[in-house]
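=== Structure Prediction Worksheet ===
Name of assembly: unnamed complex
Input type: mixed (protein and possibly other molecules)
Chain count: four
Listed entries:
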Amino acid sequence: MYESTLINLSLFILLLPLLGFVVTLLLGKKVKSVFIFENLIIILTFFSSVYLLYSKLANFRTTKISSELEWFGFNNFITGTKLSINLGFMIDNITAIMLFVVALISMLVHLYSIEYMKGDERYNRYFAYLGIFTFSMNGIVLTNNILMMYIFWELVGLSSYLLIGFWFEKKTAADAGKKAFIVNRIGDIGMFAGILILFLTYQTFSFDKIFSSISSGVLPFNSDFWLTVTGILLFCGAIGKSAQFPLHVWLPDAMEGPTPVSALIHAATMVAAGVYLVVRIFGLLTADAMLFIGVIGMISAFIPATIALTQNDIKKVLAYSTVSQLGYMIMALGVGAYQFAFFHLVTHAFFKAALFLGSGSVIHAMHHEQDIRKMGGLRNKMPLTYWTFVISSLAISGIPLTSGFLSKDGIIASSMAFANLTGHYLFPIFSLVVALLTAFYMFRLIILTFHGEPRDIHKFEHAHESPFLMVMPLVLLAGLSIFIWYTPNPLNSEQGWILSKWIEKPTVFTPERSRFDFMKSSSDEENNIKQSYLDAEVYKEAMHSAHYPAMILSELMAILGILFAFIVYQWKKINADSIADKIKPLYNFSLNKWYFDEIYNKTFVAFTIGLSKVLAWFDAKIIDGMVNGSAFLTKHFSFFIGNFDKYVIDGIVNFTAYFNGFIGLLVRRIQTGKVQSYLALVIFSLVILLFIFK
Amino acid sequence: MNINNFLSDIDLIYPEIILVSTLIVILLYDLIFTKNKRLLPFFSLSGIFIATLFTILNFGKNEFAFGYGSNNYLLSIDDFSNFFKLIILISSFIIIHFSILSNEIKICIDRHGEYYTLLFGMMAGMFFLVSANDLIVIYVSIEILSLSSYVLAGFVKTSLRNSEASLKYVIYGGVSSGIMIFGMSLIYGMTGSTNLAEINSILKVTALSDITFLTSILMVLAGIGFKISIVPFHFWTPDVYEGAPIPITAYLSVASKAAGFAVLIRFIKIMFLSGITNNEYWVLFPIIDWRSLLVIFSIITMTLGNLSALWQDNLKRMLAYSSIAHAGYILLGLAVLSNQGLTAVLIYFIIYLFMNLGAFLVLMLIANEINSEDIDDYKGLGYSLPFLSAMLSIFLISLVGLPPTAGFIAKLYLFIALVDAKMIVVAVIALLNTVLSLYYYIRVLKNLYLSKPNERYIKIKNTSLSYPLVFILGTPVFVFGLYFTPITDLAKYSLKILGI
Amino acid sequence: MTVGLTHFLVVSTLLFSMGLYAIITRKNAILVLMGIELILNSANINFVAFSRFGNFGYSGHLVALFVIVLAAAEAAIALAIVLNIYKNMSTVNVDEIDNLRD
Amino acid sequence: MINFPILSLITFLPIIGMMIILFIPKRQSLFIKSFTIIITAIQLALAIFLLSNYNFSLAGINDIKSFQFVEKFRWIEIDGFAWLGKIKIDYLLGVDGLSVPMILLTTIITFIASISSWTIDKSIKGYFLMFLLLDTGMIGVFVALDFFLFYIFWELMLLPMYFLIGIWGGPRREYAAIKFFLYTLLGSVLILLVMIGLYFSSMETLADGTRVFTFNMLELMNPTNYTQNGILSPLNPANLRLIAFIGLFIGFAIKIPMFPFHTWLPDAHVEAPTAISVILAGVLLKMGTYGILRISYPIFPDITKDLLWWIALFGAINIIYGALTAMAQKDFKKLIAYSSVSHMGYVMLGMAALNTLGISGAILQMFNHGTITAMLFLLVGVIYDRAHLRDIEGFGGLGKQMPIYTGFTTVAFFAAIGLPGLSGFISEALVFLGGFGNNSIRIIAIVSTLGILLGAGYMLWTLQRVFLGNLPEKWNQLTDVDTREYIMFIPLVLIIIFLGVYPSPMLNLMNSSVNAIVDVVEKSGLFLKSIGSL
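=== Predicted Assembly ===
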C-alpha cells in the first residue's frame, strides 16, 4: 500500500459519480433503466470509500497524505517566477471518515429513492442530479486547498438548486431552489473575499501552505485583526451553506425538494459542509474569530429550536432541528471543541438522515401529506419506520447509549469547560436550553405522528409500511445511531476509538497573542509545538471537571423535554392550544419563524428589486434620454421614428424644447426664400464681422 | 510691354484659348446647323480633352503671364492654378455627360447650343479666376463665370423653379459682386494698385490696419464667399441649387466652388503673406486675426449647413446644404494657414469632386425616372435599383467621411492639418459635425433599404452610359480610400503658388 | 472750395448706401437691379477718384471701364431673367418669388 | 511553419466570398447560405491552423520581433513634404497572445452565427454580403498592428452592422440601427482624433535612418520615439495626453459598452436578428476592451497608471448597474443585453488590476463572455423563433415542454453567473484575484463581488420565470431543439465546459503577452513620467 494508491483511489471516488452523472443525464431520455447504472456507480463509490477509510486507518493513521497538480499557471518571464493555481487532494482521517459518511448516506439515499421516486417523470434525471451532488460533495471533502473547496462548494450549491427545484412545476419548489442558491451566494461572497485575502497574502490556496506561512508569522496585511477578518469571511461561506443565522432562511424552504434529497443534502452532508469548512480552516482562526463563530452557532442553535416547537410540517420541524444541530456543531468549533464538532457532524449525519428518510417513509405512506396534525397512530402501521424514528430521536435528544449522546454531551461539556476557562457562560446555558427544546420538539413530532389516534382516517387507511429498499436504509442508519460503533464505553466518548485514535487533534497556527489563553502553548512545551491544545493540561483539567456536571445537566434537560412532550401531547395533561393562546405573541413569533423571511423580503429583497427598477427607469429615461438628448438629436430621432416622442417628453424636456426652438428658428426662419432678406442678412453679418474683428 | 513677351505668354494660356475657341466653335455650329444638335457634346468633350492636355503640359512651368508696369502680372500660371483647372476640366467633362443624361436639359434640345456655350463661358471664367493675380482679373472672371451661370441656373425657361433660381441668383450675385468691387475700389484707393503681389509689397512697407481697410477686405471676402457659399454669404445656395437643373447644381457645387476657393486662397496668400515659418506655416500681415476669422467662418458654415440639412426632405436641397457644410470643412483646411492645410484642401477637392458629383449623378438618374427629388420617394429603391442605390450609399458614406471610402482620406488630411496646428477644439467641433452629418446622409440610406418598398417598380431604361459613368465616379471613391498616394502626390505637387 | 477726394468719396458712399437701400427695400425686381447699378457706379466713382487724386496712373480708369462693360452685360442678362419671371409668374415683385425656401 | 500570408487570408477570405456571392443570382438562396457557412468554416479552420502553429512563448505587444505571422509592406508612401518628411503607412498585420484568442473567438462566433443565419428569409443575398463584410472588419481589427489600418477595419464594421440591424431587425430596427451607428461613430471620431494626435507625437526611425511620423502602433508604444513638440508627447510640457487618453478611452468604452455610454446596446440587441445579436455581443463588444489593451495601455502607460482607479470604478459600476438594470427587464433579450453590460464590467475591472492575474482574467473573460453570451442570444433566438415572444413574464414551465433547450439554457445561465466548472468562473475569479491584488482598486474589487450575487439573482429569477412553474396552455406546441440548433449549441457548450475545467491552454496562450502588457505599462509608464518631469 502506497500513498499514491490512496490518492488514485480518492480520484476514482471523486470521478466515479461524475461519470454516473454524465451517463445518466445524457442517456436518461432514451434508456429508461439507466438509473441502475447510477446506483451501481454509487455502490461502487461506497465500497471504494470503505476501502479508503480502512486503508487510511490501517496503514497511514497518523500521516496526512496530500498530492497536487498544477491546474493552470502564470509564468512571469520578467521576474522568472511562476504562479501556479493547483488542484489537489489531502487525505487525513477526517477526510476519510467524511468521505465514508457521504458515500454511505448517498448510497442509502440512492437505494431509498428507487422506491420513493418511482413513477416520477424525470426519474433518471433525479439520479443524475444525485450523482453530480455526490461528485461535488466528494470534491469538498477531498480537497487540499480553499479554491478547490470553493469550486465544489458552488457545485453542491448547483446540485442543491437542481434538486430542491426538482419538481419545478410547483412554484414554491422553484422559489425555494432559487432562494437557496442566492442566499448561499451571499455567504459565498464573504468566503470568496476571504479567499482573496488569503491568496493575496500567501499566493497559494493550499491549506497546509497557508498554515505554515501563518505559523511563520506571515499575516494578512500584517495584522491579527485581518487574520480574524479572514477567518470570519471564510466562515461566511459556512453561514450560508450550513444555514446559520442570519442566512438560515433557505433551509426550511429547501424542504420543497424530494424527501430523500432533504435527507442527503439538507440534513446529512451538504449542510454539514460548512462545519467541515470550519474544521479545515480551524488552524487560522483567532480567538476573536472563534468567539464570533461560537456566537453565531449559539444563536443558530437557539432560534430554530424555538421555531421547531410550533411547526406542523414534519419536514419543517426536521429542517429547523437540522439548523439547530448545525448551530451546535458550529458553536462547538467556536468553543474549541473541534473533535466533538466533527464527531457530532458524523453522528448527526446518520440519525438525521434516518429521521428524514423516516419522515419520507411516512410521507410516502400518507400520499405526500406532510402536516403532522393530519397524522397520528402510524406506530402500528409502520413499525419499522416508527422504531427507527424513535431511536434517531433519542439520539438527537442525547439520551445515553446513542451516538447523539456521545457527541452532544461532549459539546455541552466543552462549552462548560470553555466557559470556565474564559468566562463566556452563555454558551453552556444556551446549549442546555437547546437540548431541552430539542428533546421536546422531537418527541412532539413522534407523538403527533405515530402515537394517538389517526386524525385523517382516509389517509390512514391507505398507509402501509414502506418497501424494503426504503426501510433498509432506515434500519441501517438507526443502527449507526447506537454508541457501539464509536466507543466501547457508552458514557465516555473520549475513550472511543473515533475520538482518541481517528479524529486528529487540531493544531492552531495563529500567533500566540491572538489565541485564547488556554490555547497558548506553555513555555515548557516549546519543543513540542505540534502538541494540540486539547492535550494541554489546563484544558484537560477543565474538561475533566466539566464532564459530569455537563452529563447530568444535559440528561436532565433531555428527559425533561421528552417528559414535557409526553405530558402535553401524549397524555394531554396540558392543552397545547391553551398554552399557545396564553403566550399568543410568542407562539406566533415562533410559528412565523421569527418573521425572518418577511423582514428580508421587506428590506433586502424589496430594496434590491426597487433599486433595480429605479435604475432601469433611470437607464431608459435619463441616461438614454441624456445621451440621445444632446437634445435636438432626440428631436431628430423623433423626426425619424414618431413614437420616440415619449422619450423626449420624459427625458430632459425643457432643454430639448428650448434647443429645438432655437434650431428651428435659425434654420426655418432664416431661409425665407426672399432674396432681399438674405441680402439684408449678408450686410448685417458683414457689419457684425466688422465689429468683431476691428 | 513687349510684344514678344506677350506672344510667349500666349503659350501659357493655351488651355484658356482652347476653351474659348471651343465656345466659338459651338456657337458657330449652333448658328449654322440649327437642326442637328447631337454633335455638340462631342465638340464640348473634345474641347475639354484638348484643354486638359494643355493643362497637363503646363504643369511644372510656374510662370507669370501678361505683365504690366513694374513687374506686375495679371495671371500666374502655376501648378496651383493648373490643379484647379484640372479639377474644373474633370468636373466639366462629367457635367457634359450629366447634361446628355439629364431629362431637364434634354427637353430644351433646340437651345443646346446656348447651353454648351454658356458652360464653356463658365469654364473660361473659372480658368481665369484660378490664375488671377490681379483684382481686376478676379472681378472680371468672376463676372464671366457668374453671368453664364445665372443663365444656366434658369436654363429651362418654362420651369418655375428654374426661373426663380436664376432670378435669386442674379440679384444675389449682382449685389455680392457689387459689394466686392466696392471693396476692391477701397483697396485700390489705399494701396494704389490692383495687383495682388504689388499690394503685398506695399503692405510690407506701410502697415495698413485701419477699419476702412478691414471693411474693404471683408467686402471682397463677401464676394468670394458668395462663390464658395460660406455662411453668412450662402443664402442663395439652397434655393438656387434646388431650383437649377441638376447638372448645373452639380457643376456649381463642385467646379465653381473650386474656382472660388482657388481665388480665396490666392487672395489671402498672395496679398497678405509676410513670411513662411520653417514648418511651412504662413505668417500673414496682422491686419486681422486671419485664423480666427476663417475658423469662425468655417465652423459656422459647417454647423449651420449640417443642422439645416437635417431638416430637408428634398435630396437636392439636402445636398445643397451638405455642400455648404463641406465648404466649411474645406475652409477649415485653409484656416490652418499652412501648406499642410492647403494640401488638405487640395486633397479634399479631388475627393469631393468624385463623391459629390457621384451623389448628384445618382440623384439625377433617379429623378429622371421618378420625377422627384423627395427623400420619401426613395423608399425601398434599394431593392428595385440595387446598383444605383448601392453607389449612392457609397457616395453618401464617403461624404460622411467613413473609411474605407475616399471621403475619410479627405477628412483625415484635414484633421491631420488641424491637429498639427494644435487646433484641437476646432478639430473636435469638426468631428462632431461629421457625426451630425451622418444623420441626414444615413436617412437616405434608411429610406433606400430599411423602409418598406413602395409598390411601384422602377427600372432605368437606358443604362449604357449612365451606369458606367456612375461606376467611373464610384471607383476613385473606393480606390482613393485605400490607396491615396496618387492624390496626395498630386496635391503635394500642386502647392506651388507663384507670388512673393 | 476745391472739390477733393473726400467729396468724391462721400458721393460714392452715398450712392453705395442708396444702392443697398434700394436693393433691400424695393419690391420691384427692376428697381433692385437699379440698386445694383448704383453700387457698381459708386465703385466706379471710387476707382476714378482714387486714380485721379492718388496719382496712381490710369489704372483706376481702366477698371471703371471694365466695370461699366460688365454692368451692362449683367443688366442685360438680369433683365432677360426678370422678363422670363414675368412671363412665368406674372409678377416682378421680388418678395413674392419665394417658392424655393425651407 | 506557415509560409503563406495566413492573416491576410483569414481577414480577406470573407471579402472573396462576398465577391463570389455578388455574382450569384438572388434565387440561389440555399447556395448562398451554405457558401457563407463554408467560408466561415474555412476561416475557423484557418484560425485553428494558425493556433497550431503559434509559438506560445513569444510575447508580442510592443516588439515586432515577437509578433507572429507578421505581414508588413509599405502601403502608402509619399515623399517630400517639407513639414512631415515622409508620409508612410504600413500594411502591418501580426498576432500575439492578445489577438489570437480574439481571432479564435471571432471565427467561432462567426461560424455559429452563419449557421444561425439560416433562418433569414428576407433579401438573403444582401444579408450574407453584409455579414461577410462585417466578418472582415472584425478579424481585421484583431490583426491590424498599424493604427490607421486598425481604424479602417474598425469603421468598416459600422455600415454592415447598420444595415444588418436596420434591414433584418425587429420592429424598432431603424431607431436601434441609427442609434448604434451614431454612438459608435461618435466613439470612433474620438479615436480618429487621438490617432492623428499620436501621429504627430511619435517618430519612427526607418531602416535608412530617416525619422518619419508613424501610425505603427508598435512604434507609437516606444517611448523613445516621442518628438519634442508633439501634442501628445510627454516631452512637450503642454501635452494633452490625459485628455487624449480619456478621448480614446471613451471611444473604446462606447463599444464595450461602458456606463453611461451603454444605452445603444439594449436597443441594438433587442432589434437585431439573432445571429447579429450573437456577433454583436460575442465579438463587437470585445473590440472595445481589446482596443484599450492593445492601444490605450501600451501607448499611454503613464496615464493608464494614473487612471486605473477610475477604470476599475467604471468597471464596478458596469457590473452592479448592469446587473441591477437587468433584473428589472421584462424583455428576455434586453435582459441578456444588460447582463453583457455587467459582464463586460469584469473585463474592465480585470484590466484595471494591471497585473498578470487581472489581465489574464480580463482577456479570458472577453473570450468566455463571447461564447456564453453568444449562446444566450442564440437561446433567446430559438425561443423567439418558435413563440415570437420575448416577454419573460409570458413564459413559464418551458422546462417541461422543452427539456433539452432548458438544459442548454441552464448551462449558459450558470456559466454566466460564474458557476465553477464552467468557463465564466475562471475568468471572474481571476479578475477578482487580480483586482484584489492591486492596492489601489482593492476596495472596488471587493464591492464588485456583489455582482456575483446580483448576477445569480437575475439569472435564476429569469430561469424560474421562463422555465419553471406551470406551462401555460398556449406553449404546449413548442418543439424542442432541432438538429441545426444542436450544431450551434454543442460546440459552445463544449468550449464553455472545457475552459471551465481546463483553462490552461487559453491562459498559456496569452501568458507571455499578458506579462508583456504589464511590463510595458509599468516600465514605459515610469519612463514616460520621468521624461515628462524633466
